[in-house]
Amino acid sequence: MPIRHLSISGVRNLQPLELSLHSGVNFIYGANGSGKTSILEAIVLIAAGKSFRTSQLKHVLNHDADRIEIRMTVEDEELGECTFDSLRLKSGDQLLKLNDSVLTSQAEASHWLPVQIIDPTTFKLLSGSPEERRQFIDWGVFHVEQNFMDQWRTFRKQLKQRNAVLKQKEEEWLPVWNKGFVESAQVIDEQRRAYLKRFKPEFERILKALDPDVDVTLAYYPGWDKDSELSDVLAKQQERDMVLGYTQAGPHRAELRIKVDKQPAAEILSRGQQKTVVAALKIAQGAMFQQETGRRTIYLVDDLASELDEKHRFALCKLLEDLKCQVFITSIDKEKLTDIWQPVASKVFHVEQGQVSEDSR
Q1: Does the pTM of the predicted model rise above 0.85?
Q2: 295-308: per-residue pLDDT in tens?
Q3: Coil vs helix vs strand at 121
Q4: Res 343: pLDDT
Q5: pLDDT digits (tens, 9 = 90+) for 56-71
Q6: Do 274 and 266 meet the contact criterion of CB atoms below 8 Å apart?
Q7: Given its phi and psi angles, is residue 3 left (phi above 0), alpha (psi -120 to 50 degrees) or beta?
Q8: Are 297 and 141 in contact (CB under 8 A)?
Q9: How far apart are CA 65 and CA 300, in angstroms?
Q10: Domain map of the chain by residue range?
C-alpha cells in the first residue's frame, strides 16, 4: 500500500513540500539537522497520531507556524486510491479525514496506514520498559484481530473501574468488577498468545537471515502467574491491591521477554546485535501482517548505517526488498544508501536546510 504523494507543511524546519514518491524504495539523504528524519516523522504523525521522536506536539511544530498539515495519497489493496488529511493546530485541536470524510478516531487511520519504524531509538524495544514490548505485541494483534481494539477499550474501562473501587476501599464491590475484568483480560490474553505463537517462527526465520550467529528466545508473560487462574491471583492479591490502590495483575502488566541464554538480550548483545534483533522483530511483524491480511506495511528506516556494518545493512535491505513493500531510508551519506542496495524501483531525495529535492542516481 504505497504512498504515492506526500504533502507536508508546518513540521519542524521543513519548508512546505510536495513529493511524488516511489512505490518501492525512497532514499533520503542529508546532513544532520537538515530535516530528513522530519519527513518520516510526518508520515508517522498521520499514521499513528504521534511522533516517534517526542511526546509533545509543540516540538514537532515549526516555530513560525500555527498548524501542521499533512496530506498523503495512498494506493491501498482494499480501498484503492485514497487520500488522508491530518490537521494539527497549535492549540491541540486536530482533524483527521479519509477521502474528505472525518475519522472519529486515530485507530481508523492506523488501521489503514500500517507503518513500522526502525531507528536508533528502537533499542528501547529491548532495553526499555515492558510497555514498549506490550505495544509491539498489540500492534500486531490490532492489525489482524478486528475486535482487538474494542476488547482493549473494554478492558481499560474495567481496569479503571476496579482501581477506583480499590482506592475508595469499597471491598464489597470488588466481586462485581472482578468478573468483567477477568472476562476482558482473558480475551486479550488469548489473542496475544495466538498471535505470538504464529509470530515466533517468522521472527526466527528473519533473524537467521539477518545474522545466523545471534540466538534469541521470545517468551510471553501474561501479567500474572501463568500457572494460576487470574481470578485466583486477584483474590490472593486483593489485600495488597487495596493498600496500593491499583490492580497489580492483568494484561496491562504483560510483557514480551527477549532473552539470550536466559538473560535479557539488552544485557548480553552488542549494540549492533541489538539493532539486528530489533530489525528482525520489525520486519517479521510486517511480514506477518502481509501474510495474514494481503496488505503491505510501509517501512521507515532512519539512519540505516548507524550500528550496522555493510554485511548487515545488505541483509536487511534484501529482506525488505523481498517483501515488495514501500520503504523510506535515510542516511547522512548518499553512498551508504546506494552502495549496498541497487533496486531499479527507487527514487533518491536530497534534504538541505529544510528544502527537499529529487536527486539523480
Answers
A1: yes
A2: 999 999 998 777 67
A3: helix
A4: 60
A5: 888 999 988 999 999 9
A6: yes
A7: beta
A8: no
A9: 26
A10: 1-114+295-361, 123-294
